[in-house]
Each structure stands twice: as C-alpha cells, then as structure tokens.
Amino acid sequence: MNRIDKRKFNALYGELLRANPDALPDRPLVEATPTEVPTRRSLGHRTLERNARIEAGWKSGKSLGELSEEFGVTYQRIHQILKERGVDMAGASNRGHQKRRQLRLDGISTWSGDAADLYRSGHTLKQIVSIMDKSPGAVRDALTLEKVDTRVAWDYERRQYSNDDIARMLREAAEWSGSPETLSINTWEKYRAHMRKKVPTHIMIWQRFGSWGAAAKFAGLQNPGRRKAIPEAKLIEALRSVAEALGKSPTIEDYTTYRDENPHLGLPSVMTIASRSSWNSFKKKANLATY
Predict the structure, then answer these.
(1) In this structure, are residues 29 and 13 in contact, taking their beta carbons and an 8 Å threshold?
(2) How far apart are CA 188 and CA 190, in angstroms?
(3) Is 22 exposed, middle or buried (0-12, 13-18, 19+ CB in 10 A)?
(4) Domain range annotation of the chain
(5) In angstroms, rounded to a whole number, what is the distance separating the alpha carbons of residues 174 and 184?
(6) 182: helix, strand or coil
(7) Distance between CA atoms of 26 and 291, rounded to whole angstroms?
C-alpha cells in the first residue's frame, strides 16, 4: 500500500466506524504520512539516471523497440535521448529487424538441413514448400542458411527441364520457323509466344548452357548470330512481295499481320524498315501508294 492509499484507508475507516464511537481504536490503524511532492531537482536527477540506464541498455544490445517498452517512452524519444548522449545511431533502426531475423533463422535452423537435403535430391522449391509445409520465403532462408544457391533454387524451370528436353524444344522451334538448321533468340521467343509460354525462356537456356550458341550446338543447330544489315533493295523487294500477296499497298498493321502469319518467309520487321527511313519513304521507293 503506497502513501496516498494509507491516507484514504484511514479516512474511509473513520467514516465507517463513526456511527459506533466505542468501536474506534485509540489511534488510526495505519499512520498517515504526507505525500512527497517531487521537486524539479529530484525530477532532473531521475531523468539523468533513466537516460543513463537507456544508454547502458542500448550498449548491451537492446533495440529501440525493447527500450521503448521497458522505459515507457516512445521509440522516437529513445532515439533522441541516445543521440543527445553522443551515441552513434547509424543503422539503429535495423537492430530490431536484425534481431527478429536472427530469431527467425534460429527457428529455421531446426529444419533447414532437411530442406537442403530435399533440394539436393532433385526437388524444386515449390515441392519443398509443399513437403515441409512452410512459406516460400522461409524455405529460401533455410536454403541460404545451408549455403545453397537460392538463385538456382528459385528457378523452377532449371529443375523442370532436362538438357535433352531443351534440345528437343529447340529443334521443334527451328522446324516451326521454316529454318530447321538454324535458330536465333528472336525466333525462339516468337515460338515461345506461339506455345503460350509453355517452354523455357531464352535466358534460362542461356544460363543452363552458358551461351545461346552452346545451346544451339547441343541441339545440333547453328546460331545465326548477329544479323548483317539488310540491303535496301531486299527491303523494297519485301514490301513489294507483301503488296502483291495482299493485292494492295500495305499499311504497317497489314505488313505486321502478314509477317506474323508467315514466319517462314523471313520478312524483315517494320522496325528494320523504318530504321532506315520512314515507312512512306520506302513505299515510294517501292512504287507503292502511300496513305
């Protein structure tokens, strides 16, 4: 019972027993003591003592959030107090995050070895998430903890396709393009769009084999490499051939549609033509009507 409670108790006790004076004791059951009124000097001393304890807590490794909860002041005030006392606050806001992450990793370490074993045995990250009943982020942290290359683990396609599967797809793409002996990255991406992205990206293939040329060679194909500039005469000829097939002077949309529908013709793109000059300028050179 603190000092203020003692005085209240004596007052209430007296009111309750006033009706029966004979039952009152000779003196109050609890001696009343005057309440101490804190002075500015005592408050200042307490504040300095508290701030010193805050600094000691920070140096012992506590985070801003832990000190805020312990001393009943805001996160920002703790930061201000420490800064006023000359404490280096660089990276202060990360201490709590780092501690929480370390606690999380401590919990993950109990099963990270099992996750790494599953990965090394050929399971994908998605399969490990299902087997371990953990979140993708937790599984990735577990593999990082076991020094597993998570860039490989995160790429499902690396485990989904074998080298022979990729080689077969490359040959099928070359046949689809009308050039069964060569296959460029551009043609592969068109084939991938045609297959509604059910085949791996050229980036994944590049990373698997080290280069696009190496992948093409593994599949028994040739990489056409960087194309040389197409002569202007061939660009004009391509425009005339499309106009003859359509029976009219083609617009950009007409040309693009016809080119996409006939990839085996190997027609240059609109950007290739327009990069030399304007679209209408080339149509004039091909003696075609402009709109």
Answers:
(1) yes
(2) 5
(3) exposed
(4) 40-100, 109-159, 161-218, 232-285
(5) 9
(6) strand
(7) 118
Q: What pLDDT is attached to residue 19?
A: 54
67 within 8 A of 58, measured Cβ to Cβ: yes
pLDDT per residue as tens digits for the range 151-202? 544 444 455 678 888 889 999 998 988 888 888 888 888 888 888 767 888 8
Which residues face 222 on adjacent strands? 182
**3-class secondary structure, 221:** coil
Structure tokens at 139: 């599984």
Model confidence at 235, pLDDT cuts 50, 70, 90, reads confident
Helix extents (H) in the chain: 3-17, 40-59, 64-71, 75-84, 92-108, 112-120, 125-132, 136-145, 150-154, 156-160, 163-177, 185-194, 202-209, 212-218, 232-246, 252-261, 270-274, 279-285
3-class DSSP assignment, residue 7: helix
List the structure tokens of 199: 């085949």
Between 48 and 98, the more confident residue is 48
Residue type, 123: H
Q: 153 is written with which tokens?
A: 């683990």
What mean pLDDT is predicted for residues 124-144? Answer: 81
pTM higher than 0.85 for the full model?
A: no
pLDDT, averaged across the chain: 77
The tokens for 193 are 């769009």
Buried b (16+ CB within 10 A) or exposed e, 240-258: bebbeeeeebbeeeebeeb
